[in-house]
């Protein structure tokens, strides 16, 4: 089972600037306890109101990468200020 993490205690990093690629809204967050930085991506919503499956595809790719010992980004599924999505570290 995949844990859904809560990133509400993380602080928005306004100094890193915009992350330019892709169509989804994203913000940089910093863990105030560890200074770990992550890119929080909000869901892409189709015209019919459905959320795309990109978040679980990225998480699945990370988990497969770990199993076959391929270096890849750490991806967590989570929420930030009541919005669901994921954080890529």
Quick structural summary:
The chain has one helix and six strands.
Note down, in words, how this protein is organized.
The protein has 1 helix and 6 strands; from the N terminus they run ββββαββ. With 89 residues, it is of the alpha+beta class. The chain has one domain. Strands 1-5-6-4-3-2 form a 6-stranded mixed β-sheet, with helices on one face. A hairpin with a 2-residue loop joins β5 and β6. It is globular.
Overview features:
globular; 1 helix; 89 residues; single chain
Distance between the termini: 20 Å
Identify low-pLDDT runs. Answer: none
Coarse morphology? globular
Number of helices: 1
Strand content: 25-35%
Task: Round the mean pLDDT to the nearest integer and report it.
Answer: 84
Total number of domains: 1
């Amino acid at each position: 089972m995949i844990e859904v993490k809560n990133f509400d205690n993380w602080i928005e990093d306004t100094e890193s600037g915009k992350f330019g690629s892709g169509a989804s809204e994203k913000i940089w967050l910093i863990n105030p306890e560890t200074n770990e930085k992550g890119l929080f991506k909000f869901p892409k919503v189709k015209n019919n109101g459905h959320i795309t499956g990109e978040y679980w595809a990225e998480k699945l790719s990370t988990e497969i990468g770990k199993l076959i010992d391929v270096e890849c980004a750490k991806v967590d599924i989570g929420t930030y200020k009541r919005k669901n999505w994921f954080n890529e570290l």
